[in-house]
Amino acid sequence: MRIIAGQFRRRTLLTNPGLTTRPIIDRAKVMLFDHIRHRMPGAKVLDIYSGTGTLGFESLSRGATSVVFCEQDHRAHELLVKNVEMLKVQSQTLCWRVDCLRCSFKAQGGPWYPYNVIFFDPPYVMIEKDLHPGTLMYRSLDRLTRPELTSDDAMLVVRTPSEAKFVMPLAWETTQVISVASMDIHLMHKRLDLVFNPTTDAAETSEIVDDAGIEPTV
Length: 218
Prior knowledge:
about 20% strand; single chain; alpha/beta; disordered C terminus; Rossmann fold
């Protein structure tokens, strides 16, 4: 898996040969970043279900200021850390081994947020199974609308199987869908009139387990 453009153009990334991650194909990545390239310079990026970091490293290469990678799989996280070391971007990245469904997304140790661009790329099986009102996944995406976590003009990028059936929190509004191969890439923006309701904070607190016994790795 290679970086397409920018500072690290043509650099090859380590990827997990197993089935626990699903790196995005080059053609889809080119189409995606053609649409969002104007958002990259200076952006603070959150890469959820990052795998070995394909989207986050492409963002850094194109001018993003920082990337927080969230990934739970042990092997993928190991390779992610090696990719950070290989590109020498330790000061711009945080590799957080965490349960993405129970994460506060409040990364420690630097001015990592509010995030401007969020990539959300869970295993396909989770999209139709877990992305509907009342689930941890739904609430985690709702939580990301908090003004302290994401900027008013934040973009959320969600990759799904083609024609997948799922329900997003109302505060995330789809503005464009990029269809390529057997996938859809949804570009979403925040509706500021429907952001996360702070009265639900108490209920959410019991769900959040930021470390799960795992420390972030810078």
